[in-house]
Design a protein that fits this description.
Strand order of the largest sheet: 6-5-8-9
Strand content: 5-15%
Structural class: alpha/beta
Number of strands: 11
Low-confidence stretches: 1-9
Length: 461
């Protein structure tokens, strides 16, 4: 058998498309053997049956195994829901021709090692499911388990209302001409009942974080670590800086907030988060957060589903349902959370805004360095924002466009918001009224009630 070069062996994009296409047409189980056979033929029998079968299993959200069988009798239940940990898995068959160690080098937490035969091993205690190793592996041996098979079945059945909670990093991902309104129309055509901006729930979190800052930062020795967006940032602190855990703001992410709020108002609804982050698949399954989000898709996976369903977002009507403020939309890039909380403090608690000293950092190495400085007492800032990906969420491994372009697109999208801060966003008060009978704009006398509502709904359980 001839040796495969990396471009030959990374067949994941084609397998994702074939699986999505068959699932969308309702023939996945009947076509699974055909897909496996066709892909082997495409690679002129150089890819083993087991390699292709395992890649198909991963695309279906299943664990790779040591069999040439695509699906066995134990897989049916696993294919009915979100899936299970671990999210990032290795297909050892694809590692045979790899002589490098790019996956090891790419893992910022040192979770990957290789044995004398070159087979990768992932330390699950260290792994943050960040997906950096997936991007680095040219052989397709590492992948994140997809969740779109049960999601497509759900959309085709029309048995539940299904909401798409779309991260603000979507701006520009599907082409410069694809506006929020066009993306919404494409998702409705796909079978979703509505698209909501995850950024609206970032607005809620922003207000909550402003209250948390006011409560916890009382003198020059106090500081607050924001936990809003990035599960990898929190994993880093848990693993390497547990002594700093007490400074983390007790807030769920905007993703989880969106699911909780939607299900509070419509308990039977299903919520799908769509963004650039692989680690969100793992976050959605954490014991104290599980149930808020039913499925997680990356932008790359959504693009694959659009292709399988023959939907071109650029050609759809531009029918936006704008919900979020400039602050909430800005969460998608480095510095966005700090800017949002600082600006909101100025509106909500002006006297406290004067002493607000944020610092922002992105990329695991720089995040680690910052945390070491905090531990050593060498930092004067009192609001700490960390993002594991360079550029922030726009740099996530599930993105489609470069992070620099993503940042520019997010800035434009944020500047087009109908409200500047959550304090001026009527959508925020509409949600608060439904959740806790809160009425009116925030005042110093009403702030305690607002804070109580937000804490009750948006603290981790």
């Amino acid at each position: 058998m001839a040796k495969l070069t990396p471009p030959d062996l990374n067949i994941r994009p084609r397998i994702l498309y074939q699986v999505a296409k068959a699932a969308w047409e309702g023939h996945l189980f009947e076509r699974k053997e055909e897909i496996c056979r066709l892909l082997q033929q495409e690679f002129e029998d150089r890819a083993t049956r087991r390699l292709v079968a395992n890649q198909i299993r991963i695309a279906m959200g299943l664990e790779p195994n040591n069999s040439e069988e695509v699906i066995n009798e134990y897989d049916e239940e696993a294919l009915m829901g979100m899936g299970s940990e671990p999210v990032v898995v290795a297909n050892p068959e694809a590692c045979q021709d790899c002589k490098g160690a790019e996956c090891e080098k790419a893992c910022p937490l040192g979770a990957i090692t290789r044995d004398e035969l070159g087979q990768p091993s992932i330390d699950r205690n260290k792994c943050a499911n960040d997906g950096y190793c997936i991007s680095a592996c040219e052989f397709g041996a590492l992948a994140d388990k997809s969740q779109f098979v049960p999601l497509i079945n759900l959309l085709r059945q029309h048995s539940h209302k299904v909401y798409a909670s779309v991260a603000p990093a979507f701006a520009g991902q599907f082409g410069p001409e694809v506006t929020a309104g066009k993306l919404r129309s494409a998702l409705l055509k796909l079978g979703f009942n509505e698209m909501v901006e995850t950024a609206l729930y970032a607005d809620l979190i922003t207000i909550k974080e402003a209250f948390e800052y006011d409560k916890h930062v009382q003198d020059e020795h106090d500081f607050l670590i924001t936990s809003c967006c990035c599960p990898i940032w929190i994993k880093l602190i848990e693993n390497k800086f547990p002594d700093l855990m007490g400074h983390i703001s007790p807030s769920v992410s905007p993703m989880v907030a969106s699911g909780r709020v939607i299900k509070e108002l419509e308990p039977e609804a299903k919520v799908v988060f769509i963004g650039p982050c692989v680690a969100k698949k793992s976050e959605a399954q954490l014991p104290d957060l599980k149930g808020a989000i039913d499925f997680v898709l990356t932008f790359q996976e959504l693009q694959t589903i659009f292709a399988a369903a023959e939907i071109n977002p650029a050609a759809e009507p531009d029918e936006e349902n704008p919900l979020a403020s400039w602050c909430g939309r800005l969460y998608a890039r480095t510095g966005g959370v700090s800017a949002a909380v600082g600006t909101t403090l100025e509106k909500l608690i002006p006297r406290r805004a004067e002493k607000f000293k944020p610092v922002k950092v992105d990329g695991i190495p720089d995040c680690t360095k910052l945390l070491e400085e905090i531990r050593a007492g060498n930092l004067e800032a009192n609001f700490i924002e960390g993002m594991a990906c360079k550029g922030g969420c726009v740099g996530g491994p599930g993105r489609i466009i470069p992070s620099e372009l993503g940042t520019s697109q997010v800035n434009d999208y944020s500047n087009a918001a109908h409200a500047h801060t959550p304090v001026e966003n009527p959508q925020v008060y509409s949600i608060l009224a439904k959740l806790g009978h809160y009425r009116g704009m925030p005042t110093m006398t009403g702030s305690s009630k607002m804070a109580a509502i937000l804490a009750r709904k948006l603290d981790p359980k």
